Description:
It is a single chain. By secondary structure, this protein is α+β, with helices and mostly antiparallel strands. It has three domains: 47-58 and 315-390, Beta Barrel (conserved putative lor/sdh protein from methanococcus maripaludis s2 fold); 62-69 and 221-311, Efflux pump adaptor protein, beta barrel domain (Elongation Factor Tu (Ef-tu), domain 3, Beta Barrel), CATH 2.40.30; 78-218. It has four helices and 22 strands. It has helices spanning 2-30, 108-144, 153-158, 161-186, and strands at residues 44-50, 53-69, 72-76, 81-86, 95-96, 103-105, 189-190, 196-201, 208-209, 214-220, 223-230, 252-259, 262-278, 281-289, 304-321, 331-334, 340-343, 347-350, 354-357, 366-368, 380-385, 388-390. The two termini are 86 Å apart.
Amino acid sequence: MKKIAGLVGRYVLPVLLLAGAFYGSRRLVASRPEAVRQQARARVMPVEVVLPVITNHTVVVEAMGQVVPANRIEVRTQVGGRVVHMHADFEVGGRLPAHARLAEIAREDYEAAVVEAESAYAQSRLVETVELQRQAIAREELLQEGSELPAGPGRAVALREPQVEAARHGRAAAAAGVERARRNLARTQLSVPFDAVVLHKTTDEGSVLAPHAVLGEVAGLDRFHVEAVLPPQSLGWLPAPHADGVFAGRPEVAVGVVRGADTVWRAGHLSRLAADMRGNMARLVVVVEDPLASDTAPLLLGAFVPLRIPGRTLHEVLAIPRRALREDGSVLLADADDRLEVRFPEVLRTTPEVALIGRGLDAGDRVITTSVSAAAPQMALKILEGGASHE
């Protein structure tokens, strides 16, 4: 009996346990709740739409430019000597009125030269007068002697014509010497013919200068130039210049003067198209009259300023929000069935706010302004209006 009981515990009991476990698992599977399959709904994208606007748009070409002098000259001496006077404002950044005495060279030697030249002129006049008297006496003596005046070269010698001619040339040379001495005296005082600002200074009072030495450099204050650079393709939007590069009619240009967070726009006019390029950029010259007149927005030399140049007008084009134009040049539309449509219209020009469209869109097309990351044709759309939806 003990042997039978051992066999049962060793073989029969494990089989019964496995059978019970298998039966229990089948019951659990049979009693689990039934999963309910639901039909997945198609994806619907909520979007905002606008209608294109028919408009006439004046193209504004934007560029950057640097303010440079319109008139710029070096102040040079024409005579040498010691500098005995300089204008108090003849310093870098100083402003000088037109015809003001900027500097003066010591005058004593040049005044003495004028006196010497005038003395030489007086002496030459005396010589000329004496020779004329001698000529008259020679003529009278020949006539009293009853001699006929010789012909040919002898006549000129008998009448002292060579001496008179030399005396006349001597007087003319002496007169020129006087004029030269007086001009040199006047040149001891230096000035410029226009209101100017000092750009550069190279010498000071007390210096001894040679003729044609540079004292400094000044720029006129009546007008400044703005040298602008822009891509050559932008020239097609601007008025065409004449063959010499000059723009007719002085087209207006807005010149920006940045003051902190604000930009003050001043008036200028388009002058000419430069005959050369800077790198791959075309160069324009804009003129600003009286650039330093404004107390709040003076136009300073060397500044880089923004420009807005009105160009051609596009008539009856469609304007859509700039954000509606995608990077690849496509525009997303909502068709009559509220399905997504992709088009590639003709883009005439873009600004930060709008894109101007030629062909490829109609005024009644509903343009999607919402960013759609995974746009697929015929995608179902939900059109939003004022934050609410309609279907």
